Amino acid sequence: MKVALLKSILLISFFWISLAAGAQVLDPVKWDFHVEQGEFGLDLIFHASIENSWYLYSQDVPEFGPIPTSFHFESPLEIKLDSFLLEKSSHAQQKYDEMFALDLLKYSKEVDFIYTLDPKFPAKEISGYLEFMCCDDKQCLAPKTIPFIFKIN
What we know:
The chain is mostly beta strands. It has one domain (27-151): Immunoglobulin-like. Helix content is 14%, strand content 44%. It contains 1 helix and 11 strands. A 4-stranded antiparallel β-sheet has the order 1-2-8-5, with no helix packed on it. The protein has a 4-stranded antiparallel β-sheet with strand order 6-7-3-10, with no helix packed on it. Strands 4-9-11 form a 3-stranded antiparallel β-sheet, with no helix packed on it. The radius of gyration is 21 Å and the shape is elongated. The model is unreliable at 3-22 (pLDDT under 50).
């Protein structure tokens, strides 16, 4: 009886260990942040690299849709977003999304979100966080928050 109980416990333990070892953590969008000299001032570039078959959504999403990509500046306090950041990608798709039953703008492969600073902007560092949601054709991952810091020279 004790041997059978021990075998059952070991079997269950091996099952859970193998299940945990086989579980994947999905992280299909990678972000990097850099500053470039733009035509009208310094451009803060939020660059998203997106794995094949995945996509993320625009900042402009209809009500009852997915979580839009959004940007929140914490420092310096003078930064206020009066409008959206420019979205730049050769992989934009404006089409009907069956998962949300809406016409949506989404990006695959890569996209840049660009915010232009006034050339006289005095700060040397800008920080905050962005929030986004990504999906493939079968599932959506929970919204994710990513901190960012830009060093201004």
